[in-house]
Amino acid sequence: MSADLSPLIAATAQWLTRAYAPGGGALDSVLAGAQARQAVTVAAWLRYPTVLDAGLVMVAGPGGSARLDWLAGADLGETDEADHAWRTWVDEAVASWAAALLSDRRLAAAAVAAVGDSDHALGLPVEFRRLTAPDAHDGRAAPLLRHPDLVASLAGLHRAELLGRLDAGHEHAA
Amino acid sequence: MAERAHGGADENVVTLLKEQHRQIRELFEQVETAEGEGRREAFRKLVRMLAVHETAEEEVVHPTARRAFPGGDRVVDDRLREEREAKEVLSELDGMDVDDPDFMPTLRALRDDVLAHADSEERLEFSRLQEETEPRMLARMAKAVRAAEAVAPTHPHPGVESATKNLVLGPVTALVDRARDAVRKAMGDRH
């Protein structure tokens, strides 16, 4: 869990939880955020597997949320500086991969297995239970974010690259 | 002087988590002493702190503790059961308004459960983890907990100065892919 990617991860997770509103209360909001953050973490580790990859994207910049906002139909109009700031750290492909993982339990399990020995895990046996085995509270907190039909257009944006990455990892391990 | 969480490279995860337990205790006090909108705001902070803290423990700390000492599995399973029970009460509270007459008695029940759970973690899990784990790994775990709890940046990426530029820079990921491929190719050529 390299802290190097954490601005990208936190911003992209925030974009997901704002685009797919959580259930009602404070607890739902934070539980939806935790699931999004775990999905985005796994997606970012897959997308930028080495310290070198992470370093490059952090220098070049993750691209920002502009196209995602447009696709999501969000009319942001004149955003203030604070709202603009975090959106510059959003990574479109990572958001798309995370949406695919949140809406497909089998894909999530494969992705978590693929990042088990990632450089970013720092040699720790990390677990992403809220992503791979959400309990009843988690499910109620993020009904939109986990709905395959509702995230289909976002997940579809970069799905082929995600499946390709998982297949390549599988072949490499075999 | 008491050891404090400081966020440096040699930070110890046990120190960091104990500091968070202290903050949780303080937030309970704030909810109890505040009134009206102040209580509502303090409760929102408490809920966020509890969920973020437990998620990071579950992600980073418990998996290592399970493997770190004999009986680790059972100690962690007991802590997870306590967390689940506390979450049921928290969920019940989350559905109530802070002015509801049942709110404060339920909050006090939650406080007792959460503080007993934190005490068990410190005595039965963290102390053994600290004894059985190298300082280097305790520092890595602290870094991982901090990453798991990070909030979205409040400053823009240094390469992006305006909202318009953000739009223009949309396809920058493709640039990163090309740079990465070029570097890989260069490195591969040397092998």
Attribute tags:
heterodimer; A: about 170 residues; mainly alpha; 11 helices; globular; B: about 190 residues; Four Helix Bundle (Hemerythrin (Met), subunit A); 2 domains; 7 helices; about 0% strand; disordered N terminus
Structure write-up:
Chain A has one domain. Helix content of chain A is 66%, strand content 0%. Chain A is built from eleven helices and no strands. Chain B has two domains: 13-148, Four Helix Bundle (Hemerythrin (Met), subunit A); 157-191. In chain B, helix 1 packs antiparallel against helix 4, helix 2 runs antiparallel to helix 3 and helix 2 runs antiparallel to helix 5. Chain B has helices at residues 13-33, 36-68, 72-94, 103-132, 135-148, 163-168, 172-190. The interface between A and B is large, with 56 and 53 residues. Chain B: It comes from Streptomyces cinnamoneus. Chain B: This is Hemerythrin. Chain B: Pfam families: Hemerythrin. Chain B: Residues 13-127 form the Hemerythrin-like domain.
Largest inter-chain interface? A-B, 56 and 53 residues
- Tally of extended strands of chain B? 0
Number of helices of chain A: 11
N-to-C order of helices and strands of chain B: HHHHHHH
CATH topology assignment of the largest domain in chain B = Four Helix Bundle (Hemerythrin (Met), subunit A)
Which runs of chain A of at least 5 residues are low in confidence (pLDDT < 50)?
none
Helicity level of chain B: over 70%
**What is the CATH first-level class name of the largest domain in chain B?**
Mainly Alpha
Based on the coordinates given, report the CATH architecture of the largest domain in chain B. Up-down Bundle
Q: Any idea what the shape of chain A is?
A: globular
User: Order of helices and strands of chain A, N to C?
Assistant: HHHHHHHHHHH
